[in-house]
Amino acid sequence: MNQKIPILPDVLTGLYTDFYELTMIQGYFLEGKKEEKAVFDYFFRSNPYHGGYVIFAGLENLLYLLNHYIFTPESLDYLAHQGFRDEFLKYLADFRFRGDLWSVREGEIVFPNEPIVRVEGNIMETQVIETLLLNVLNFESLVATKASRIREAAGKEALISDFGMRRAQGIAALQASRAAIIGGFNSTSNVAAALLFGLEATGTMAHSWIQSFQDELTAFRKYANLYEDHCVLLVDTYDTINSGVPNAIRVAKELEARGKKLRAIRLDSGDLTYLSRKARKMLDEAGLDYVAIIASNQLDEWIIRSLEEQGARISSFGVGTRLVTGHPDAALDGVYKISENNRRPVMKLSENIQKMTLPGKKNILRFKNGEGKFGGDAIILDEENGPVSEFYHPLFPEKKKNVKGFSFERLLTPVMTEGEIRIPKVPVQEIAAYARFRMSVLDDSHKRFENPHVYKVGISKRLMNLRDAVKKEIQRKYK
User: Fold this and answer.
1) How far is the C-alpha of 186 from the C-alpha of 258, rounded, in Å?
2) Half-sphere exposure of residue 425, counting CA atoms within 13 Å on the CB side?
3) Which residue, 100, 4, 68, is CA-closest to 423?
């Protein structure tokens, strides 16, 4: 982790939760259940954006917060005023998260219903972190996935920057900028996030700079004089083709005379395809083929794909609102469910069969087919050591996939033991590189924007038998 400053004040860490989490763990404490062991799974039920995958993000931030999870005197005073018992508050005064986490690697490609994080510990510590875990992982994974889709639309060579801070949901902009890099962006305009996570900070100018001078050419010249080594000029304040681009060309020539180069022009309104093609022609005719064209203004993967299909001459994109808000999906539907209590497998039943959970302590096997591509995932019991030759559809067991002879890997590995972080600190860019590598091994059929092929995720025979046995036991007891 590259944090140089905390992402949440200490006074808030213990209170960064839903109220019912605290009432439940007080109940566990008063009922003498504080030493009971529990296992919880984190998973999501459907892919966002009607897409075919999710980029898992937020793990390092989560581990950092769990490692610093405390109840300060101020937070305990607040809870006392909320009516919590004195003996419980004394327990919280010394509380630290001392549980274990198993997780897929950050930047991994994951799919619905897979237990991508497993939390083990006593019932109180595993319960109280639920809201924090969901808050971090759901949001960062949503934004990383959106960023990945934007990268797919823009292509490998385009430069893409996060411009979303001003439209983000408060300080979640910090996490959004980090997640954007994991998903495939190159830089961010968010200076605080750049410091916090070791990202590249970038930016151009606003129209107000140009409007503050008596004319556009003067504004361009003043800016170029100040930032001659990385000058980008915004050319659509008044008239892009008749004023903005010609003035940018003039300033570019003046920079050349000083041995410098104009880096780029930026388009922030209008018909971006038409304007970029026209501007590119004007720049090239002036011998400025090295000057890039940046586009911004309510971009997302759909608009960028359309621009590419129309032959727009844009080499860099600034993407804001629709990235950091995860537009049009408000949230990733990740959930946190108990799967084992005092070493007894447990599960939730529901009239909606898709909301039933899987019991027991589990892991994930990922198979690769003969072409080296991901060939399907099997959710297995953690105690299963050998490979499985086939796995079954969780709802329709008559459907199964044969993976005999496929190579495989176990995806969940220990990342925290007894509250201590076990994985090394790595730059966000390294997580992003891993995500790019894993995306290259995912078949293109799962990356389609329209009707992506559904990635096969199933359960092992032993897990299916355990699920059916636990289900029957519950039904005998309650029905």
Assistant:
1) 29
2) 9
3) 100
- CA separation, residue 63 to residues 1, 97, 102, 422 (Å): 9, 10, 11, 10
Identify the sign of the CA torsion 437, 438, 443, 446: negative
Which runs of E-coded beta strand occur in 154-212?
A: 159-162, 187-188
Kindly report the number of other CB atoms within 10 A of residue 258's CB atom. Answer: 10
Number of domains in the chain: 2
Q: Are the C-beta atoms of 432 and 184 separated by less than 8 Å?
A: yes
User: Is 441 in the same domain as 371?
Assistant: no
Q: Are residues 68 and 127 in the same domain?
A: yes
DSSP 8-state code for residue 421: E
Amino acid at 333: D
- Arithmetic mean of pLDDT, 22-35: 97
**pLDDT reading at 474 higher than 50:** yes
Give the CATH number, domain containing residue 346. Answer: 3.20.140.10
Helix (H) or strand (E) holding 338: strand 334-341
Q: What is the pTM of this model?
A: 0.96
Flag whether 311 is in a domain.
Answer: no
124 and 99 fall within a common domain: yes
Which residue type, as a one-letter code, is found at position 195?
Answer: L
Q: What token pair was written down for 203?
A: 């930016």
pLDDT digits over 307-350, tens only? 999 999 999 999 999 999 999 999 999 999 999 999 999 999 98
Phi/psi at 19 (5° precision): -60, -35
Long-range contacts of 117-121 (CB under 8 A, 24+ apart): 117/41, 117/42, 117/59, 117/412, 118/39, 118/40, 118/41, 118/42, 118/361, 118/362, 118/363, 118/412, 119/39, 119/40, 119/41, 119/42, 119/336, 120/37, 120/38, 120/39, 120/361, 121/37, 121/38, 121/97
Domain hosting 462: range is 361-409+456-479
